[in-house]
Amino acid sequence: MQQSISAPRVAGLVAGFPRNPAYAGLADALTLLIGDGRIPLGTRLPSERELTEALGVSRTTVTRAYAALREGGYAEARQGAGTFTRVPGGRARSHDRALLPRPEDEAAIDLNCAAATAPAGLAAAYAEAVAELPAYLGGHGYFPAGLPRLQAAIAAAYDARGLPTDPAQVMVTPGALSAAGIVAAAYAGRGERVLVESPVYPNATQALRRAGARLVEAPVDPGGWDLDAVGAVLQQARPGLAYLVPDFQNPTGHLMDDAQREVYAGHLRRAGTVAVVDEAHQALALDGQPMPLPFAAHAPGTITIGSASKSFWGGLRLGWIRAPHERMEELTEARVAMDLGAPVLEQLVLARLLADGPVMPDNVTRLRAQRDGLAAALAEHLPEWRFRLPTGGLAVWCELPRPLGTAVVTEADRLGVIVAPGPVFAVSGGLDRFVRIPWTRPAPELEEAVRRLAAAWAVVRDRPAGVAGRRTGRVMVA
Question: Exposed (0-12), middle (13-18) or buried (19+): which is 409, by Cβ within 10 Å?
Answer without folding.
Answer: buried
